[in-house]
Batch of 2 targets.
Target 1
Amino acid sequence: MNVSTSKVKRAKRLALEKLEGSFLNDYNKLEAYGQELRTSNPRSDVFINISKEALLQGKRKFLRMYICFKALKDGWKSGLRSLIGLDVVDKETGRTWEWFLELLKCSLNLKDGHGVTFISNMPKEQLPCPYIELIRKVPCLTYDQKCSLIAPMTEQEIGDALRGMTKDKTPIIDGYPMEFFVKHWEIVKEDVAGDVMEFINTGKLHKEVSSTTITLVPKVTTPNKINDYRLIACCLTIYKLITKVLTNRIKLVIGTLVNPA
């Protein structure tokens, strides 16, 4: 059988349209869909943008769509959360961001946006925020930096953090200092790493692990005011290790978010 490449491609396209349907009919129904949303969800915001360039050519071409249901607006306002996660913009260009955020500003009545934090997980590199009053230019983490913060904790990472801790200068409540865990790591690593990972994954810390003894050591012979004492906190090694692991991760990105000056 002698069939040209163009015929094969055309046959494939026709077969896919037959199986999955054409998007053309779906796009033609968008305006009716938007009107139905407005009717069935009063006080919801529905906007459909048509390409201006296509209109100049006498064509109607879908560009973008914005939907903000009244129930979602009410839920956000009643929750009093000043944090908004964004995962809906197709291309994070200044033009698209400005269009979307201006509509969101009206939907949620954000006014000048003071006290509201916006988070998006889409950019793979640092992108400048569009210059509108709603958004201020602030440092942002790259996609890779975000992934490094939420990457699964490993036994190797926990062991490296333990070996990087300084020698205990204060007594340990349970009598097991950091040196004990380093020396016997191969024996205790499964239990220790398990406790650390449990906290990282669940956010729950056993009461025994979070126990801390506060001791006041006098700095002078006859102390008579609080400044004459040195406060010493005696924590469990596991507690210190969790802190060290989290600190090591934050150290990788803190320079991006906080000006060294």
Target 2
Amino acid sequence: MKKAVMKRLLPLYVGKFFLSFVLWYSIEKLFIRSIGIDNFGISLIAIILLISSILTEIPSGIIADRWSRKGSMVLAGLFLGISSLMAGASDNIFMYAAAVTIWGLHDAFSSGTGAAMIYDTLLEEQGHARNFNRALGLYETLGGIALIISNFLGGWIGEHSLLLAFNLTIVPIAMSMVCHLIYKDAKISREVADEKLIKHTKNTFKCVFKSKSLLWLMTAIMIVFCIQKMNREAYQLWYIALSAPAIVFGIAGSFIEGLGGLGGSLVKYLNSKQINIVLSILLGLASLALSVGSNLWITIAAQVLIAVVSGALLFHFTAQIQHQLPSRYRTGSGSVINAVGRIVLMPLTFVFGVLSNQSVFIAGWMLVVLSGLAVFVQLKLEEQASPQ
């Protein structure tokens, strides 16, 4: 990557690092259990989060395309800061649900926005985005490194005070907001501001549903997205079931949360359908280990493998979709895809909550089934790519 491009992207990369430096992610379920919420209650909270994200996902993407993508990232940081303070102050399910609702706004405003910013900056600076996979991989890798460090620190801080982990998160969030304010938005995305809102919204949806191959690609993203989210949201439930100490939550969480981001560094190697199918089979085997095993270290290894593989596949499919979207609708179209994925995830989360309240090991079979579906969809993608 040229020095001029790297200099332009530097605030975005640093902003990603600090926005991902969240100290309470690794001890969240411990905190929730400490205020009297069971596994089913945790699933209900996850559904509330999904509803919040779904309702704001598409509007936030259109706002980013029409107003300012860096402004959307600043708002994402603001919402994360507010939700962190509210969550730490919670002492019942209703207060925590309110905090999670605000976190959903953070998720909606940040999801897909960074990738769109990178793609358009490459187009503006170079006239092409052939190195987008590498640039996106670096972006996500930095986020993964931040998650590894912050989850490890969060577990250590949680040994002394769960509340402190929430409050200290405000510092890196503020730094991320400053970085995004410094970043210079690409002008190529501003051409959409002259288009009428209703027409823009219609064209955003048309971009997503315009071809059969794009629909299969979107289906693949949704399945891998569900596997990744369920693994990230529920991994701590296995540790609770296995009576693991709090420090394990931090150490294991740092790898599970962080290595999902580091999966971005593998994107450039995912250049064949066969490799992607093999990775999906690996997802199934790791999910099987979660369902039938009761050894803590095997459980952690399986969850880390799911995090890395799902992260790599998700970034790969995201990159493929970015290549097929026009700049003026890039963030909004990505938001449509994310919203559909969350709609699919909502009933799955409810079923997972019901099953995990009986046994989290039984609930793990849902990941096995989803991994099988991922293999099937990628075979369909290969059919679409093959000449008729």
